[in-house]
Amino acid sequence: MNNMCEAFNREILEHMKKPIITLLEGIKHYITKRMASQKELLHGYTGSICPKIQLVIEKNKKQTQGWSPTWHGDDDLSIFGVTNDIETYFVYLNKEACSCRKWDLSGITCCHVIACIWNIKKQPKSTFMDTYSNIMYPTNGPQLWPIDDLNTMTPSVMRRATGRLKKHRNNMNDEPTNPHILQTRFSTVTYAKCGAMRHNKRSCKGKKAAGKAIPKDGNKSKNTKKVKGGKGTKKSKEKQTEITQSSQAPQPTQE
Q: Is there a contact between 43 and 52 (Cβ–Cβ < 8 Å)?
């Protein structure tokens, strides 16, 4: 994506939420102003190509040192082989192609193509002026549009969707994640005694997991009820000891 596409995408953001006709009118006015302002800048520019592209070409010109082109005898003077005794590339000027693929991808001539152009003493075309040579003609407003006999198109009924409104776009597959946002990771929850998942103390059947020791009777605990004053309580044990001590005490003798 070049700078022109990035600038265009940035400017149309404010028109994206508008109706279709208002959106197109806003884009048209932006393009008209953009082309008019660029034409004013061109009056004081003497070059034949864009200034930034000119810097790239000047850099590629310095890299042509050591490359020797060889014409292969075609009638159009467009087929060349360029080599530096180590690497060899094929250049086709009429098709604007080079086997290094830099010219195909960026549209800017690489050092191999520049060496071929210098060999045949060919001049590049002035395409910078042709970029803004066309104009966009103005259009009348809605009050002068022709009226048709068809039914008026009404907008669809706006219904609010269920759930929370979406505010963020979907990330691309090759887009890096934001390092400042903590990713939500769901950990596996297991029961501590058996180490298995999807159950707790009530539903655990006592299956032994690897490295876990489980009692023979499982994880179920016996529900024993303690009754006040019953057997096994502290009070009942104290009463039993008192009775045994009184029964074992020596009885007084009669004289």
A: no
